[in-house]
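User: Let's play a game. I give you a shape written as tokens, and you guess the letters that built it. Ready? Here's round one.
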């Protein structure tokens, strides 16, 4: 089905200057960027985004990292977009990520793993609404 998913290029990806390289992977796979912005998350905004992880031992480090520098948030649209994005990203832990995936190529550790992608259509809708208003999403007409 035609889906939308949220993609984040994390502070390490921006710091490595691979924003264009990462977006190129999505475009090459047939996903379209229909919303995009760069931002520097506040502690509150990062905590809210990762609220489901608030009881996990890595939560503090995760929020610290995600607020350490600018990020790029994107809405990707396409056939099977949620699964496709996850396939392009590779496993959360870069040491387990398949060759040729974004995490294998650009991530250093499970904490600093270059990209985030929604894990399901339902979470995608929530995550997209967390960062984008309707007017900030620009469906492609051609
Ligand atoms: P992300 O998809 O952004 O969602 C939560 C993040 O927490 C995850 O990517 C990882 O970067 C980070 N993280 C750190 N430790 C773990 C862990 N043990 N399990 C899952 N995610 C972790």
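Assistant: Ready! My guess for every position:
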């Amino acid at each position: 089905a035609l889906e939308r998913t949220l993609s984040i290029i994390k502070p390490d990806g921006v710091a490595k200057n691979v924003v264009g390289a990462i977006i190129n992977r999505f475009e090459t796979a047939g996903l379209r960027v229909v919303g995009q912005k760069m931002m520097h998350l506040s502690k509150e905004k990062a905590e809210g985004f990762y609220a489901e992880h608030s009881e996990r031992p890595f939560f503090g480090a995760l929020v610290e990292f995600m607020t350490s520098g600018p990020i790029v948030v994107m809405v990707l649209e396409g056939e099977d977009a949620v699964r496709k994005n996850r396939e392009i990203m590779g496993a959360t832990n870069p040491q387990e990520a398949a060759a040729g995936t974004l995490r294998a190529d650009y991530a250093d550790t499970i904490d600093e793993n270059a990209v985030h992608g929604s894990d399901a259509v339902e979470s995608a809708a929530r995550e997209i609404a967390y960062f984008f208003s309707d007017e900030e999403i620009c469906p492609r007409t051609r």
